[in-house]
Each structure stands twice: as C-alpha cells, then as structure tokens.
Design goal:
The complex is a heterodimer. Chain A is mostly helical. Chain A is 38% helix and 6% strand. The chains are: A mainly alpha, B mainly beta.
C-alpha cells in the first residue's frame, strides 16, 4: 500500500472540498473526493449534500480513505460497477457483507454517493 | 419494531428438525448446581467461558505436550453458508456438541462422531439482522434447564429443547424503533435466568441494555441500561447526549458466586468518534465521561442493580471499549481478583469485591507494543496517562487502529502454570474525525463520524503476538510473535498444551511452559471463533470453529495481501481433533 501517494490524493480531494466545488450528478460524472454534490433531479435538497460528511457517517466503517483504499470493504475508486449498479448496492446492500441504506438515506443522498464514487480516481492506476 | 415482533415471534414460524439418524440423545440435565460447578467438570464445556472462573482452561490431559504431535482430525461438520464465518464457541454436554453458525442456525451433533442430532434455523428479520455493518454472525449459545439459548441479531432470545431442537419459547426482547440493535454475543445462564447484552455502541439510541430473562419462560426479569439508567450516568453526558449515546455490552460477561454479582464489559459511546478534542469535558457531541460506556459494571445478579463499576476509558475517544467479555477470577494469597482486558490493550486487575465503588484497581498494565493513543496507564489507579485526543478535520495516525490491541477473542489462564495466555494485535490507522449529524434520539441509527485507512506500525509490518504472563503483575514468561495476528480464542489444558487457532488457517499447539511449537495443522481457512475440549465416550476431543469474515479480519487483505484477499467470508466449519 502506497500510503503517501494515497494521502496526497486525499489531500487534493480535501482541498477541493474546502474550495466548495459542487457539481450536478449525472450517469458518469467526474467528482473529486469530498466535493459537495447537489443531487438531481428535482426537487432539489434543502441544502447541499456534503458527501464527505455522509461518507464518514455511513461508509467509513468498511471503506477506507473516503473510498480511495481497500479496507474491510473493497476500494471504491475505479469500481467497474455501473452507476445503476452502485445505486442498487447502496440501496439494497449485499447480504452478509454490507447493509442496505434505502431506509436511512434519501434518493438524492444515494444519487450523490453514486456520483461521488463513480467520480473517484483510482490512486493505484 | 412491533411489526417485526408480531410477524416473527412464536414457535409457529421457527424451523426445527430432528435428524433421523438413529442415535440416542445422551444430554443430561443441566441445572444450576451443575453450571456453578462447571470448573470441576472437565468432560463438558457448559458455557461460553468454560466455567464461571472464566479461565478458558480444561483439566483434561489425555491430549498432552508429549502426544499432541499425533493429533488428527476426528470429524468435520460443515454448516453450509455462514456469513462472516463461524465465530461461535461450541458447547459440549454429555457427549453432545452444540454450536451456532451465522443467521440463527443452531446445531446439535454427536460429540464422538459428528453425526447430526438436530438442526434449528431461526427465521430472522433480514432487514434488521443485516441492517448494521457487523451482522448477522453469532458468537455462541448457552445451555441450562433442558434448553439451548441463542440471542438473535433481530433482538430476540430463543430457547430450544436440548433433546429435540424444538422451540420452547421465542421472545422479542430488544426493540429499537427504526433501528437495528440486536444480539451477537452468547448468553450466559445464571440462577434460573439467561443474561445477554445488546450490540450497538455506534448506534444512536438508548440505553445499550443488558437483560436477564427467565430461563423457563423468556420473560424479562431485569434490564440494566449501560447508559442513561441513573442520574450519575445522565450527568456525565452533556446536553442530554445519552439519548443518542449508544452503549451496549456485546460480548459475554461472567458471574461471581462469592458476591452474587454479574460482571459485564460495556461498549463504546456514540458518536464514534467525538469531535470535542482536548475540550471533551465541555464541548463536542457528548461532553463528559459518558458513564457507563467503555466500563466494567458489576450488577446484583438477582435484580440487575448496579453494585459497582469502573470506567476504563473515560470519554472513549478511540472506540477502545471494554466489551471484551473476559473476566478471569484468580485467587492469590487470600485475595480474589478479577482480570479484565479491553480493546485498548490494557489489562485491568480488579479487587473482586464490589463493595468498593468504583471498583478497586489492584494493577493495570499495557500489553500492546505500538500504542500511541495514550502514554500509558497508572497501575495504581487505572487512569489513562497522556491521552491523545483526535481533533476534527485533521489526519492523525493512531495505534492501535479501531480494531484495538485486543479483540473480543478470549485468552486463557492456566492455574497449573499460573500464566495468562493472550493474543495481541498490532496495527494502526490514519484517521480523520468528521463532525457527524446526530440521528434522532432513540433511533438506533448509525452515529458515526470518521474516515480512516489502516496502516502498519512505524518501521515495521503489522504483526501479532501471544504472550504468557503473570496475570496480576503482567510480567512476561514467554512470548511468540505471529506474522498474522491470531483472531481466535485460546485454550490451555492440564496437559500443558496451549492451542492457538491462527488467522491463516494454521492451528498450532504450544507448550504452555515454554511456548515451544508442538503441533501444527492447516484447517484450510482462517479462525476467528471459539475452541473447546471435552470428552465423548471416554475420549478427549478438541473442537475449533473455522471461517473468516469478521470486521477485524477485514483488515488482513489490505495489510497482508494473500492468503487473506482470497479467503472466503461466507462459510466455515467445525473441526474436531482427537488422538488416533
């Protein structure tokens, strides 16, 4: 594991978040880690969804480094799953591996996660 | 969760089958006298910790340091799919072996041959059972009064007839509206009651209860709330934060008959992690000490009333909770001690007299080698020295990682050598604490705010070690380093054998006196469950659970690579060894 490289990437990601970068979700968006994402379609959320905070609250137990590294769960950056598959995995989970979040996260929040994950650049590629 | 309990509670929905294999059941009655004297009954393994001494030790010596090299597989039982492996401790009663696999499966097997006697499959609420990130495994069973008891991940307690596996009672004990709390730890039978603690230190809600239910009816006899249950606790959570404070007691505690006391270790507070930093006493999500999280509580066994406590991790900032279930009772020079490890890698030696409130700490010592979250522990007071808080929004390298220097796997105390054998794991993580939004009070939703990456200790790869030490002073007699930290429980015997089920699938027998390796066998998959010994038809057997996939084990692929990246996480077996 190249810890230093990954930390550098994460630092870039955090800088992007600090700068308040926001994008609209799409099927295959490019979003830097930690960026604020305003989910679509309408109705718009009451406030911007902070993906970094959401990730820390829901995903970090298993997915290391905001999804940049393999942890107890797989590395999310560079996933080969389609956006629709990522959505389904977050919503429904995977039995014995990952809980589903459809009862605790809104569709907009899951959309934001999908945009974030599909936008992650694989630090190992 | 009334909807769930209505739908699921009751024998009508439970599946139970008695195998038609034509062997006679030999299980005898397990009444209270037998349980309280389990330490004098080495032919059987009657409870999770072996006996109320909590030593994980056996007086059997047919298998010993001289002949253990001849040990071989006697039989194997494969339960089929077992999500996150088989993590439970088997129990052995009069030639019949009982164990649990994931998702509420219970097996009764002939202890000599492995032939199935009966199987039970609880019908679980899958949404609830798998609604958290540490389900749906179970760590074991209890036996008593003709029944086998299991707690389920959807908050139920179930009693099964020992002879048939049929449901005697099935009660929803724990309901958290909108949440996912349940039971993963093994219950323990105490004086006509079945005692079990809830999981969910990271889950918003109150109050992380420990329950005692009537062994014959399943009715709740008492409930102790590990947080928010008394004014002392409430006062230690600023801004009424106990309402979202987590707590719990997810591993199996113990009973001390000399004082009629339940000893139980409690879970961490929520949120996990707090952002109060150095000012945690007055700011952050949960200002204050957060009693009785990350503590030891001593309860009146009859009433559940709190007799005494000691908070091992005041305002636990690291998720190094005290829910590790070991309470080893040791007498020396006329004084009774209770030895208890916690995730932070501290072994506390308490005076076993709960008349001291808080408990009197006779000694406390660190067993980790790479820790940096504190400078140490005061051996006279048990207070942490040189705390290192985790500031919000900054990356901090913390050792050990969230998984702790000590996990929930039990060590072993051998009264013949006078030594405590214990596994310690050594790795770290780079963590950033993030201010989490609070879920609704009493919701049971995850209350968690951090991101991290597991790392190796400075200057070397992650590793583990098994040490033999005086349990009271901590002085090391011998130590053996492991490339891959073992995650299973240990077993030592009068035959001077210490069994160490390894992470890579190798089970090893060491000489209890020297640590010399006596025997190794590849079980084909990692271990992170229990190990016991017993006799059936006059012959000594050693039974060990295999299977991989716990959350702690999830670190091994990123830390070590293979064989862990290819190790299945959805199965396991029960392997039973004997001499030819």
């Amino acid at each position: 594991m190249n810890v230093f490289a990954s930390q550098a990437l994460l630092a870039v990601a955090m800088a992007a978040m600090t700068a308040g970068i926001g994008v609209h979700a799409a099927d295959e968006p490019t979003v830097e880690p930690g960026a604020e994402v305003t989910a679509t379609p309408a109705p718009p959320p009451a406030k911007p969804i902070n993906v970094k905070t959401m990730f820390a609250m829901n995903c970090s137990w298993c997915h290391d480094g905001y999804g940049l590294h393999a942890g107890k769960g797989p590395k999310l950056a560079g996933t080969q799953m389609t956006a629709a598959q990522v959505y389904l995995r977050i919503a429904k989970g995977k039995s014995g591996m990952m809980p589903g979040f459809e009862k605790t996260l809104s569709k907009d929040q899951i959309d934001a996660f999908v945009a974030y994950i599909k936008g992650l650049k694989d630090p190992d590629s | 969760m009334k909807r769930w309990s209505t739908r699921l509670t009751g024998a009508a929905l439970a599946l139970s089958a008695t195998a038609m294999i034509g062997i006679s059941m030999q299980a005898g009655a397990v009444e209270w006298d037998r349980l309280r004297n389990a330490d004098k009954d080495p032919n059987n393994w009657l409870m999770y910790h072996g006996s109320f001494n909590g030593h994980h030790y056996s007086d059997l010596s047919q298998i010993n340091a001289q002949n253990v090299k001849n040990l071989q597989v006697a039989w194997i039982h494969t339960p089929g799919a077992s999500k996150r492996g088989v993590q439970s401790f088997p129990l052995a009663v009069d030639g019949v072996l009982y164990y649990a696999s994931a998702s509420g499966q219970v097996w009764a097997l002939d202890g000599a041959s492995g032939e199935m006697v009966w199987k039970y499959q609880a019908k679980l609420d899958q949404d609830r059972s798998e609604g958290t990130f540490y389900n749906p495994y179970t760590r074991g069973l209890a036996v008593g009064y003709g029944n086998v008891y299991i707690g389920t991940t959807d908050g139920r307690m179930i009693a099964l007839d020992m002879k048939s596996g049929k449901v005697v009672w099935d009660k929803t004990i724990l309901t958290v509206e909108g949440g996912n709390k349940g039971f993963t730890g093994a219950p323990v039978v105490v004086k006509g009651m079945v005692v079990i603690g809830s999981n969910g230190g990271e889950l918003s809600g109150c109050c992380g209860p420990i329950f005692a239910v009537d062994a014959k009816t399943g009715e709740v006899r008492w409930q102790f709330d590990t947080i928010g249950g008394d004014e002392r606790s409430k006062a230690s959570w600023g801004n009424d934060s106990w309402k979202t404070g987590g707590g719990g007691g997810w591993m199996t505690g113990n009973y001390d008959e000399s004082t009629n006391s339940i000893w139980w270790g409690t879970a961490n507070p929520a949120p996990d992690y707090d952002w109060g930093g150095d000012k945690w006493k007055t700011t952050g999500a949960r200002p204050g000490d957060n009693l009785y999280s990350s503590s030891v509580v001593v309860l009146n066994a009859d009433t559940g009333e709190l007799k005494s406590w000691f908070q091992e991790m005041p305002h636990d900032a690291w998720d190094f909770d005290s829910a590790v279930g070991e309470f080893m009772k040791i007498e020396r020079n006329g004084t009774q001690y209770m030895v208890h490890p916690n995730k932070g890698g501290i072994i506390f030696v308490y005076n076993a007299d709960p008349a001291n409130a808080p408990l009197k700490v006779e000694n406390a010592y660190m067993v980790g080698k790479t820790f940096n979250y504190v400078k140490g522990v005061d051996p006279k007071t048990g207070q942490l020295m040189g705390r290192r808080e985790l500031p919000e929004g900054k990356h901090t390298n913390v050792c050990p990682a969230i998984d702790g220097n000590i996990s929930w796997n039990a060590g072993s105390y051998n009264p013949n050598t006078g030594l405590l054998y214990k596994v310690v794991q050594e790795w770290c993580f780079d963590i950033e604490v993030v201010k989490a939004d609070a879920p609704p009070a009493f919701s049971g939703q995850t209350y968690f705010g951090a991101s991290w990456t597991s790392t190796h200790p400075e200057g070397r790869k992650a590793f583990g070690h098994v040490s033999a030490r005086d349990p009271l002073s901590g002085k090391i007699k011998w130590e053996k380093e492991y490339k891959y930290p073992p995650l299973a429980s240990l077993l030592s015997t009068k035959g001077n054998v210490l069994f160490v089920p390894g992470a890579d699938g190798i089970i090893e027998a060491l000489d209890t006196r020297t640590g010399a390796s006596l025997w190794r066998h590849n079980d084909g998959i990692g271990h992170h469950g229990g190990i016991i010994t017993y006799t059936a038809k006059g012959k000594q057997f050693v039974a060990v659970a295999t299977g991989w996939g716990s959350h702690v084990s999830g670190n091994y692929c990123p830390l070590f690579g293979e064989p862990f990246c290819s190790m299945p996480t959805d199965n396991g077996q029960l392997l039973v060894f004997a001499l030819p």
